[in-house]
Amino acid sequence: MRRSVVAVVTLVVVTPLALAACSGDEDKPSPAAWVGASSAPPPSGSVPESGSTEPGATGGAGAVSLTVTPATGKKNVPVSTEIGFKVSGGKVTTVALKDAGGKAVSGELREDGSAWVPSKTLKTSKKYDATVTAVDAAGAKKTVTTSFTTMGKAGKQTGTGLYLFDDRTYGVAMPVVVEFNPGIKKKDRAAVQKRMFVKTEPAQPGVWSWTSSGTQAYYRGPSYWKTGTKLTVRIAVGGLPTGSGRYGDRDRAATSKIGRSFIMKVDNKTKKMTVVQDGKTVRTLPVSLGKKSTPSSSGTMVVMEKKAATVFDTTAELGPTEGYRTEIEYAQRITWSGQYIHSAPWSVGAQGNRNVSHGCVNVSPSNARWLFDKTLIGDPITVRGTGDKLAAGNGWTAWDMSWKEFVKGSALPVSAELAAAQGDA
């Protein structure tokens, strides 16, 4: 299985090959959003309230000057629209948005105060009325209203996916992974990234980063997530212009939790895996890695999928002579190209001594089951010393680069302080 090469992108919210040796034709895990995901809270900000009404889309009485968008009478507005404003001599304190039936639409202010974001995608071909109130230092208010009509259903859409499920617990290295089909071009990524919200509790810094093809974006911090972290993610791209006349298919969202720290480290020199849980070494076990013709990749990978039983079948790619079909137990995928941690009873004698696998991390049946029972999706595994470097994008490779390199992938500016942060990578 071959995947696109990955680079990396950022938004911080304070209050996101060649045929592999083991299996070249295993299906990748589906993004959670493709099988349904509930909506998540809008970006953090003040709670909107209703305000007094004054006609028009601009106002400038007293010291407060206020301009609101979309402009009054605007039609064919994307259903992803935000209520934007420019204000001087005061600050916006309340925003109220209602549909044609008078029903209030929830939402919150952006942290930089530049706009108000509805908590859900607006409905197509509907009229909306917005009321925005700004207040100056003396308490004088300025209220402006605007009305607009949203566009009909988009003819061309960008498919999206989110690799997170609601109410699941993930490992400390779980990046927030978003997919786009077709990929987002460079010139359009900043606008899309501005609608990708991640909130962490407790608060931890983070950066978004895109693949070179724009088909994926990762969100992670300088260090692994803290145990117990709550991740609230909203990829608010439903109806958002994504370039080339396309619009995002729908919002994607999930609320998940980060579990205990469980880190696997494999050294080709010793042919051993060291398992560290919550900072303490809990087990060291022998492994066999890829033989010379099918080497394992060196780098930091993440458990992406777990199957108690599966079949590795490479006959379609390699033919009946070179290919093979083998039943496998306790398989944990770590690359898209088909490298796994898995039970290999046939190589127990080689484990700890020599490499005989087709690129996978072979362990004994008992060790494979022990690992399988302990790991979570998102647990990191670092392999060193094989001489074959992990290709960017061959799996969730967000941690297989330095933080300095990671932040370069952002389509939005990254603060100097955040870019200089020190962490695990």
From TrEMBL:
Family annotation (CDD domains): YkuD_like
GO biological process: cell wall organization; peptidoglycan-protein cross-linking; regulation of cell shape
Catalytic residues (positions): 342 (proton donor/acceptor), 360 (nucleophile)
UniProt-listed SUPFAM superfamilies: L,D-transpeptidase catalytic domain-like (SSF141523)
Cellular component, GO annotation: extracellular region
Pathway: Cell wall biogenesis; peptidoglycan biosynthesis; Glycan biosynthesis
GO molecular function: acyltransferase activity; peptidoglycan L,D-transpeptidase activity
Domain L,D-TPase catalytic: 262-384
Region ranges (Disordered): 23-63
PANTHER family named among the record's database cross-references: L,D-TRANSPEPTIDASE, L,D-TRANSPEPTIDASE YCIB-RELATED
Protein's name according to its UniProt entry: L,D-TPase catalytic domain-containing protein
Organism: Actinoplanes friuliensis DSM 7358
Lineage of the organism: Bacteria, Bacillati, Actinomycetota, Actinomycetes, Micromonosporales
